[in-house]
Amino acid sequence: MNRFSVKALVSIGMLSSIAYVLMLLNFPMPPFPQFLMIDFSDIPALIAALIFGPVAGILVELFKNILDYFMTGSATGVPVGHISNFIAGILFVLPTYYVYNKLKTKKGMTFGLVAGTFIMAIMMSVLNYFLILPAYTFFLNMPAMSAPEMRTMIIKGILPFNIIKGLIITTVFMLIFARMNTWISKQKSLKSAA
C-alpha cells in the first residue's frame, strides 16, 4: 500500500480542490453534442501523479468527481457521468505518467501526453459503446439506442471529441510543464528523500 506523508495528503487535497474548480469551468465544443464538455481538471491529477506517484493522480481524479457529484448532482440521479469522467481521467493520466517516468525528457512528456490522449479516446469509445451510453439511456428512461446509432455517435462524436480534448489538454499542460518542470522535479526529489 502506498503511504503518503502529511504534506503529500495536504497536496493531494489541494490539487483535488483545484481540479474540482477547473471541472466547474467546463465548456462545450460547437460541433459536438452538448453533454461533451472540455475542462482542464486532469492537469492537477497529472501534477499529483508526477510528484507523488500514480495513486495520487487516481486520488485527485476520484476526489474531484466525488466533490462535483455532491455539489452539482447528476441528471441521471446516479453518477454515470462522474464515473465516466473518473475513468477517462485515469486513462489519460496513467499512460502519461508511465511513459514520462520511462523517458524523463520534455519529448518523453509530449509522447506520454499524446499516448494518454489516444489510449483514453479509444478506451472511452469502447466503454461508451458497451457501458456508458446504455447506462445513460437506462437511468434517463430514454429509448435505447440501436447499435448503428451508437456507432455513429461514437465515431462522429465521442472519439473525435476525446482526441481533441486530449490534444488541447496536452498543449496547455506542455505550456505549464515548461515552466514547472524544475519545481516538479524538486518536489519529487524531496518526496523521495522523505
From TrEMBL:
Q: Name one GO molecular function term.
A: riboflavin transmembrane transporter activity
Q: Where are the transmembrane segments?
A: 6-25, 45-63, 83-100, 112-139, 159-178
Note the InterPro entries from the entry.
ECF_trnsprt_substrate-spec, RibU
Asked if the Swiss-Prot or TrEMBL record annotates the protein with the keyword Cell membrane, the reply is: yes
Which Gene Ontology cellular-component terms appear in the entry? plasma membrane
State the source organism's domain of life.
Bacteria
Where in the cell? Cell membrane
State one Pfam family annotation: ECF_trnsprt
- Cross-referenced Gene3D superfamilies: 1.10.1760.20
Q: What is this protein called?
A: Riboflavin transporter
